[in-house]
Amino acid sequence: MRNIEIAKLEKMAEILKAISHPMRLEILELLEARQPQTVAELLDQLQVEQSLLSHHLTKMKDKGVLNSFREGRNVKYSLALTEITKIFDCMEACNFL
Predict the structure, then answer these.
(1) Rounded to an integer, what distance in angstroms lies between the CA atom of residue 86 and that of residue 90?
(2) pLDDT averaged over every residue in the chain
(3) Interval 56-62 mean pLDDT
(4) What's phi and psi for 90, nearest 5 deg?
(5) Which of 7, 14, 38, 43 sits 20 to 30 Å CA-CA off 25?
(6) How many whole angstroms separate alpha carbon 40 and alpha carbon 50?
(7) 93/97 Cα distance (integer angstroms)
(8) Class of domain 2-93
């Protein structure tokens, strides 16, 4: 039984590491507000270089936080873990922000 809990904790830590960057958190907020969004739409809102955005999107997609699909020439991203943005409410409730 303990191995199952350790595996679950390891997965949680992996997800937290995947989102533990201010830009990644901002991406999550943007996708929570409206999804799916194309890379171009996210670039317009974030005002960063495409290579930097792509790096962050890939990291979160690889860890199962985001989904992506191609629509014509565009790649669209959405939240794979739709409940993940509840972490914002949790952090705000901690009263250290």
Answers:
(1) 6
(2) 92
(3) 97
(4) -60, -45
(5) 7
(6) 8
(7) 9
(8) mainly alpha
User: What does the chain look like in DSSP terms, one character per residue?
Assistant: -HHHHHHHHHHHHHHHHHH-SHHHHHHHHHHHHS-SEEHHHHHHHH---HHHHHHHHHHHHHTTSEEEEEETTEEEEEESSGGGGHHHHHHHHTT--
Q: How far apart are CA 81 and CA 33, in angstroms?
A: 14
Q: What is the pTM of this model?
A: 0.89
Whether the CB-CB separation of 43 and 8 falls below 8 Å is answered with no
What is d(CA 72, CA 48) in angstroms, rounded to the nearest whole number? 23
Q: Which two tokens stand for residue 79?
A: 């939240």
Q: What pLDDT is stored for residue 67 in this prediction? A: 97
Per domain, the residue ranges of the chain are 2-93
> Which residues does 68 contact at the CB level (< 8 Å), separation at least 6?
57, 61, 75, 76, 77, 78
Tokens of 47: 């005002």
